[in-house]
Amino acid sequence: MKIQETVLWSDSTIVLAWIKKPLNQLQQYVRNRIALIQEQTSEHRWKHVRSQQNPADIISRGQLPEYLQNNPLWWSGPEFLNREKYEVDVPETIPDEELPELKSMVTVSNDDGLLAYFHKQSSFRKIQRVVGYILRFAKNCKKKRAERELGTHLPVSELRQSTETIAYVVQQFHFADEIKRVVTNQPCRKLGNLRPVYVNKLLRVGGRLDRSQLPFENRHPIILPDKDPVVRLLVQQMHIELLHVRQTGLLNAMRQRYWLLNARSTIRFITRRCVRCFRTSPTTTSQLMGNLPESRVVPSPPFAVTDVDYAGPFWTKQGSRRPAIVKSYVAVYVCMTTEAVHLEAVSDLSTDAFLALRRLIARRGMIRELHSDNASNFRGANHELRALYQQFHNQQFVESIQSFCSSREIEWHFILPDAPEFGGLWEATVKSCKTHLKCIVGNVKLTFEELATVLAQIEAVMNSRPLFTISNDPADPLVITPAHYLIGRPLTAPAEPSLEDVKVSRLSRWQHLQLLREQFWRTWSRDYLNTLQPRKKYLREMPNVRVGMIVLLHDRNQPPLNCKLGRIEEVYPGDDGLVRAVDVFSNGHHF
Known about the structure:
It contains 23 helices and 16 strands. A hairpin with a 5-residue loop joins strand 14 and strand 15. By secondary structure, the protein is an alpha/beta fold. Strands 7, 8, 9, 10, 11 and 12 form a six-stranded mixed sheet that branches. Mean pLDDT is 76; it is low at 105-110, 377-385, 494-502 and 504-518. The protein has helices at residues 13-20, 28-40, 56-61, 65-69, 72-76, 112-119, 124-140, 156-174, 176-183, 216-219, 229-241, 247-254, 263-271, 275-280, 294-297, 351-354, 357-364, 383-392, 395-407, 424-440, 448-463, 509-515, 520-531, and strands at 7-10, 45-48, 197-199, 202-204, 222-224, 258-260, 305-318, 324-335, 341-346, 369-372, 411-414, 446-447, 550-553, 564-573, 579-586, 589-590. It has four domains: 7-82, no CATH class; 112-280, no CATH class; 296-463, Nucleotidyltransferase, domain 5 (2-Layer Sandwich), CATH 3.30.420; 550-590, no CATH class.
């Protein structure tokens, strides 16, 4: 059998109209499906069949078997197909206004070139001046030479006329269909809630404020689309001229003359890309909080792994008759395993004073590892921080510290430069120590011996704090404190009698807890370690920064606008593959 042609039938006049339309006139969802239909049926013809003559409707709408058995339409097809030459009813063409899923077509073509020129510019004021001079030239061509405007500056009236002309061009491109509907008194599709009016060739908000005493431009602002480049240049220009006002203020200023569709999202789009606004309040990068180091979760003797930091300066008196006011500091040592605290008063930032570490070792035992801030953390505007920074870079000071540590097999580890969050344990301890000092001492000037005494009392209080949440049940035993690992009981508790010769069966709950001092590590593993399981902040895993990215270096000691730009040169991912440390190159320096 020789097939002359293939005819495809559909009872949907809308689908047939879509198939005949160019793809660029259809909206995205319909366009994707019509493109597939056109591709696969390009060599065939489409014709219309009425629903009463369409056999496919029998199945799609459903029919019982007894009726289907005697249905000639299903078994023989429509009657007109039996004729050698058949004709079918041609449906009426659906007008574009009634056909759904069509894009709004541009009806004005003379302004397309001008709008394309607008889109190439980077300043709205430049576009405004160019259009203003064009309008002036058009007016001067109609006037006599003596009456022409020849000034170099545009007055306010011409600038306003220029702005309205720009709005006219933009509206003709985006709202051609809406303008046609307003002129012909038809209901609008997109702007129905604004009740638009067409005044002086501009689409304005009709609204409900016509009887108010506001100026005409406030009662009927010009309607503008949200994604046009010219409109975004206008929003950006107003944002700069209003001294980088925030989103709410900028929206209120625009509503005085313009009604921007989806205004908040457009304003947010502009303000978030403003470099100067970003410099004043930059968003810092963060990454999912890392796992705890081994020294925090593995049992070890108290102060075997220790953190050290400095607090101060504090003003103390020196001498008895006419005491001089001098600076003193506090060396804060924290055990990473038990969170026990050791406070030492030091008189200055010299090497001998820093080696108060000897007193810690003499009282608490030998240290295996010592962790501290990186010397770069002490670079700051504060004179005391600069002094400590210079002290760490003094070769004689460094050699003395290294000699002291190496002879005792102490490993000294520094955290990353400019990253105090890597030393959160000792930073929190320093804050707590300062809080106690402010509450106890206030503005009183103590002697060095009095400061040492107060620090010893603060140390006892801090070492008596519970390591996990205290239960509200009075029958539960007291919780473990850092002092239990030092002396077997809280430092602020009264002394208890020895219980070594008393049978366990005769002990009360408190006495039984005292007897469990040899089992503190088991309690530490069962009760305390569980409290370290959840992350307190940085709960989301963020995309890693990459080599070559340009970043803004946030310096805590500099104003926001003075932050430097840098380029990431090296990244250091952790065990989980997340990057929390990088090398940054900026202005010839590495950070």
